Amino acid sequence: MLLVIDSANVEEIKELIDYYPIDGVTTNPSIIVKEKLDFFPLLKEISEIIGNERELFVQTLTFKAEDIIKEAKYIRETVPGNVVVKIPVTNEGIKAIKTLKEIGIRTLGTTVYTPLQAYVAAKAGASYVAPYVNRIDNLTGNGVNVVKEITQLLEKHHYNCQVLAASFKNIQQVHNVCLDGAHGVTAAPDIIKGFLTHPATEANVQSFSDDWQKAYGEKSVVNTDKVKM
Ligand code: E4P
Question: Does the Cβ of 132 fall within 6 Å of ligand 1?
């Protein structure tokens, strides 16, 4: 299951890459705008940080298929690394995804709210689809259930397209899509850090350390300063 950072903040990306088994970074225009930095230099910097092993998802902004294709090509030529182009699942977006598949540019169908949008994107050749869990919930839909249905549909009909669930407001939503079969999640840094946060874990770690120190007066089983990495 893929674990992807939904952010363009260089410091947060560096920190998360250092600590967690991260598979990539997703961006969208609103995420990029928050950083108040130039688009391509920022993406190049993120690409350098995450390296060629991880994927970098970059979204197009134009509306017509011909323009989306030009943007996608330019993004791929300009941003180094393992770039996947995010394209909204409009009529024009699907037309662009079809052509980009033919010329070997990998895409993610984004702004997905229904299983049939995902189906069309997968059939057109998208490598990923990104259903927007929290935005669906905000429309009184059931985001987790939409992810489940998309996953079932794509697997049942053997589409070579992964469901990268996106748009999370809380950890319960992530937990539920993981159980329901999503192939990956992309979430903001705070949500990802929250996966490991549990007061019982912190209390347990402290009490193990306290017990050891009371008995031996040491903080570790070995003097870590003397052991080479
Ligand atoms: C990621 O690919 C999406 O652009 C993103 O998850 C949307 O998240 P939001 O609904 O929190 O803006």
Answer: yes
What confidence tens digit (pLDDT) does each residue in 20-58 have?
999 999 999 999 999 999 999 999 999 999 999 999 999
Ligand 1 pocket, residue 173 CB under 6 Å: no
Q: In DSSP terms, which residues pair with 26 in a beta bridge?
A: 6, 57
Domain co-membership, 185 together with 212:
no
Q: What's 76's domain CATH number?
A: 3.20.20.70
Catalytic annotation on 36? no
Q: What is the DSSP string of 94-155?
A: HHHHHHHHHTT--EEEEEE-SHHHHHHHHHHT-SEEEEBHHHHHHTTS-HHHHHHHHHHHHH
Q: Which domain holds residue 172?
A: 2-191
32 & 132 share domain: yes
State the total domains in the chain: 2
Question: Taking the model in full, what pTM does it have?
Answer: 0.96
Q: List 57's β-bridge partners, or say none.
A: 26, 84
**203 and 173 within one domain:** no
Protein residue whose Cα sits closest to atom 8 of ligand 1: 167
Same domain, 216 and 110: no
pLDDT band at 220 (very low <50, low <70, confident <90, very high): confident
DSSP string of 10-79, one letter each residue: HHHHHHHHHHS---EEE--HHHHHHTTS-HHHHHHHHHHHHTTTSEEEEE---SSHHHHHHHHHHHHHHS
111 lines ligand 1 (CB under 6 A): no
Do 205 and 154 belong together in one domain? no
